[in-house]
Amino acid sequence: METIKFVDVTKCDGCRACMVSCKNWNDLPSEIEEFHGSYQSHEKITANTWNVITFNEQERKDGGLDWLFRHSSCMHCVEASCEKACPEDAISHTKFDSVVIDYDKCVGCGYCVQACEFDAINLATYIDKNGKEFRKAQKCTQCTDRLEEGMQPACATACHTGAIVYGDKDDLLASAEERLAKVKERYPNANIYNPQGIKGTNTVYLLADKPSTYGLPENPKVALSQVVWKDYAQPIGKAMLGATTMAVIGSFIANSLNKKNESSEGEDHHE
C-alpha cells in the first residue's frame, strides 16, 4: 500500500501543535528568534526546526481578511533534488517513500541544501570531542522511525483539526478532490499541490490559493545537470574508478610475477 501525508491548509488554525510535537519526538533544540513583524514564530525551516506554520494575511473581495496558514516541511519528493545532488549517496527513499539522510555518510558539503527548491533541508553544526566543528544535513524524516513501528507521523497525531493526515495514497487523493470541490466556493483559486515536474510528492497539499502565495514553486523540476550527474556521470565515474583500480592491481601482480620469473631465470642461468 502506498501512503502519503495529506495537508489541508483550509482546516489549519495555526496552533503550531505540529511544530511542538516534531521538536519533542525528534529531540530538536529550541531556537529563539527575534521578532520579525509577523505572528509567525519562525521565519523558515532550519536544521533544528523541521516544520514551520507559515502565516499569510490575504484580503478578500468583500473587504474581509483571511489567514492562510501552511504546515511547511520537507515534501519528500518522488524525484528528489537533494538525493540527486548528494555525491555520497547519503540521501535515499525508504519503503514508505520518505526521503531520509544517512548521517554516517553525510559529509556536510551542502549540495543538497542548494538543490532543494523548497528550502526544506539545512546544515547543522556540531563539535566533535576534539573541539573541531563539522556539519551534517538535517530535515524532516516524515517520522520514518514511527512509521516502522506502525505509528503515524508526530505532526499528524498532534493536529487537532484534521488538517494533517497520513494514510493510503489513493484514499487520501480521492478525499482531497472531494474536499477541493467543497472549498472552491470560498477559495476559487484552491488547488491540489502535487507537482508532477518531480513526479509528485509524498506530502500533498490542498491549497486555498496558488502555490506562490504560500512561497511554493509553481512547477518545480530537478535540474538536468543533477540528473546527468547522479544517473549517468557518477555511476560511470565509479565504474571507471573500479576498472582503473583493478588495472593497477593487475599491473602490480603482473610486475611482481615478472620480477619473480626474471629472478628465477637468473638463478638458473648462474647454475
From TrEMBL:
Whether RNA-binding counts among this entry's keywords is no
InterPro entries, alphabetically? 4Fe4S_Fe-S-bd, 4Fe4S_Fe_S_CS, FDH_Electron_Transfer_Unit, Formate_DH_Fe-S_su
Q: Where is it located?
A: Cell envelope
Q: What Gene3D superfamilies does the entry give?
A: 3.30.70.20
Iron-sulfur as UniProt keyword: yes
Q: Which residues form the 4Fe-4S ferredoxin-type domain?
A: 3-33, 65-96, 97-126
* Transmembrane segments annotated in the record for this chain: none
Q: Which SUPFAM superfamilies match?
A: 4Fe-4S ferredoxins (SSF54862)
User: What's the protein here called?
Assistant: Formate dehydrogenase iron-sulfur subunit
Species of origin reads Cytobacillus eiseniae
Q: Which taxonomic lineage does the organism of this UniProt entry have? A: Bacteria, Bacillati, Bacillota, Bacilli, Bacillales
